[in-house]
Design brief:
- There is one protein chain.
- The chain is α+β, with helices and mostly antiparallel strands and about 350 residues long.
- The chain folds into two domains: about 5-120 and about 340-350, 3-Layer(aba) Sandwich (NADH Oxidase); about 135-330, NADH Oxidase (3-Layer(aba) Sandwich).
- It is built from 14 helices and eleven strands.
- The chain has helices spanning about 5-15, 45-50, 60-75, 110-120, 135-145, 160-175, 180-185, 210-215, 220-225, 230-245, 255-275, 285-295, 305-315, 315-320; strands at about 25-30, 40-45, 80-85, 95-100, 150-155, 190, 200, 245-255, 280-285, 325-330, 350.
- The strands form three sheets. A five-stranded mixed beta sheet has the order 3-4-2-1-11, covered by helices on one side. Strands 5-8-10-9 form a four-stranded antiparallel beta sheet, sandwiched between helices.
- The longest helix has 20 residues, at about 60-75.
- The two termini are about 20 Å apart.
- Bound molecules: flavin mononucleotide (FMN).
- Flavin mononucleotide binds near residues 21, 122 and 285.
Length: about 350
């Protein structure tokens, strides 16, 4: 196995989803002369600590699952056996996962067809057609059943409207929490000086939205407009898109570190499959994020009652059989192709270990 192939595998991992398109991972490979190469995935603390989600946050585990899914897909095409060791939550280094590749000589060095499939996965934050055909509904249903163990698909229904109201409430909380606002502020990119982060062109903003976003990216400004209910307006803008989309998917799990990671793999599987079948996907992480912060006691106490209400009112939809909601996906057929996020250069996140 040569360095070019290994780099292609890591490039595929980089194409996975990460919260706010932040460069949350860095990669290391052992010398390829060992004949049994390993890829290590680290939390990129130098780049994102204090600026994105912490190392042991479910958001990081979901993103790790997505990177692993892409690595495994490439290895499958190369007929390489992979074994993955996940670093325990308690380890205090930045190591998240170690992937050992088999000694088997790859049957083919080209992984272009898998990469083409992986490349199609992307976030589409634009408007979708409200109605889809029965054939499309069936296709979405088939894809989600095939690629997820534990999910609920909601087409137009009372449950879908209830879920949208819950997302609205969670979003209202989010726009009032300085710490969450700081994550958005840290990742927002208004020009092309950075290859990562959340570029405003990928946000499908209404006219003037860019200037408004720039204005509220300063916490003091957001805090000011919040006094007259700005957070409600911002949240309802987000939910308008949900109301006008044909379906939502809720992904759930048991809440352990390993389960978050394997659900991240499923998230990537369902998302990649939907995009490759011509359906658009837009993830909403606001409910799991608020509930996780409530659980970890990192949500400011003045929002506890609102967050507990959210949980109480949404109990039937959000927590089923002692399982928690991990992610909600808006799915549909887009009206306009999405502007894609870019990624940093592989050399900036890859090192070769000499032992
Ligand atoms: C854990 C997690 C949470 C995310 N939450 C949201 C979200 O609430 N809203 C959103 O628009 N995108 C969300 N995303 C999508 C990322 O912003 C997106 O994957 C990233 O910007 C890279 O873009 P791409 O998916 O087009 O490759 C989330 C991604 C992950 C992994």
């Amino acid at each position: 196995m040569d360095i070019v192939t290994i780099k292609k595998i890591i490039q595929a991992a980089l194409l996975g989803c990460t919260p706010d398109n932040s460069t949350v991972f860095r990669y290391a490979i052992t010398p390829l002369t060992t004949n049994q190469p390993t890829i290590k995935i680290f939390y990129n603390s130098e780049k994102v600590a204090g600026k994105s989600f912490p190392k042991d946050d479910p958001a990081i585990y979901l993103a790790l699952g997505c990177a692993l899914y892409n690595i495994k897909a490439c290895c499958k095409e190369l007929s390489l056996e992979v074994s993955v060791d996940i670093a325990t939550k308690e380890n205090n280094s930045d190591l998240l996962a170690l992937i050992s590749l088999s000694k088997l000589p790859p049957e083919k060095e080209e992984i272009s067809s898998t990469i083409q499939v992986i490349k199609k996965r992307h976030t589409d934050r634009g408007a979708y057609h409200k109605k889809i055909s029965e054939k499309d509904k069936q296709a979405i249903q088939d894809i989600t059943t095939r690629s997820t163990r534990n999910s609920t698909l909601l087409f137009e229904s009372k449950d879908k409207s209830s879920l949208i109201k819950l997302i609205q409430k969670a979003s209202e909380i989010r726009f009032q929490v300085k710490e969450i606002h700081a994550l958005l502020k840290n990742s927002l990119q208004f020009d092309n000086s950075q290859p990562d982060g959340l570029h405003i062109n990928t946000l499908a903003l209404p006219p003037g939205g860019k200037y408004f976003l720039k204005f509220i990216s300063k916490w003091d400004n957001l805090a000011l407009i919040n006094k007259i209910g700005g957070y409600k307006l911002l949240a309802s803008q987000e939910t308008a898109l949900l109301k006008n989309s044909p379906c939502l998917l809720i992904l759930r799990g048991k809440g352990s570190q390993l389960d978050f990671i394997s659900s991240g793999e499923e998230l990537c599987h369902v998302w990649t499959s939907l995009n490759n079948a011509g359906y658009s996907v837009h993830p909403y992480y606001v409910i799991p994020d608020i509930l996780h912060r409530l659980d970890m006691k990192t949500l400011p106490s003045k929002h506890h009652v609102q967050a507990e209400h959210l949980l109480f009112e949404g109990a039937a939809l959000l927590e089923k059989d002692k399982e928690f909601v991990y992610m909600i996906l808006r799915i549909g057929k887009t009206k306009k192709s999405a502007i894609r996020s870019t990624r940093p250069d592989i050399e900036s996140i890859l090192s070769i270990e000499d032992h």
